[in-house]
Amino acid sequence: MGMSTRFPMLALAALLSLPLAAPAPAAGLDDLVQIEILDGGLTPSGTYLGAIRMTLSEGWKTYWRAPGEAGIPPSFDWRGSRNLGELSITWPAPEVFEQSGLRSIGYTDQMVLPIEITPKDANRPVRLRGEMEFGVCKDICVPGNLDFDHTLDASAPRNPAIVAALARRPYSAAEAGVTSATCRISPSQGGMRIEARIAMPSAGGSELAVFEPGDPALWAGEAQTRRQGNTLIASSEILNDGGTAFALDRSRIRITVLGAKRAVDIRGCLPG
Q1: Where is the signal peptide (predicted)?
Q2: Topology classification of domain 9-167
Q3: ∠ CA(128), CA(131), CA(135), 5° rounding?
Q4: 0.85 surpassed by pTM
């Protein structure tokens, strides 16, 4: 039920090439970011709908779950929560940024992450209590953490901010017209080389593919992405911090294609 995202050492090294402020306690972040839990009431299936909303000061940005080589991924600790069964997060389609020659992926102004929760006991309230670690950047980058504590309101009406965030989720492969996605995997000096060939209409403009290996012990480098007719070709290197041999499960690989018109979420790929 908890969710955390690894911050690979290569990304840390890239981030340290940017101006970096010291880690900031919650009180020191008040002028930059505010965090709150939004209520969305109950869904027809009886799950709770809520959201984490981060509101940022003008010109500041925060990061997506796979933030690129110059970003700090958010992570969550839900251990203080009560009556929390299953929990799933919807990540709205992010933006792509360039800073000091490095690419990062995230959000400006605010980040709203819808959360759907299945309670352990449907007759008891759900309390979301925990901590979020994150990074925010403008001319400098500030890592920090903030606490949250909120009992969800089962009778709350539909929340426009949650509805808008859900509407901005990436298209599924079927919705985007993906007809096939194959991955060719080969050994590399430091890990595994992956090349994906995705048959799909253009997502608009200069497309960027982002790989997520589906294993918290692994991480993917920045992908090289190009288009050949109706086929998007993306390649990257999958690594682990230990540099030891590992297996790569194609069914767990997640590829997000970010384009000017839409984002596309592709789960798994076939041998190719």
Answers
A1: 1-26
A2: Immunoglobulin-like (2.60.40)
A3: 130
A4: yes
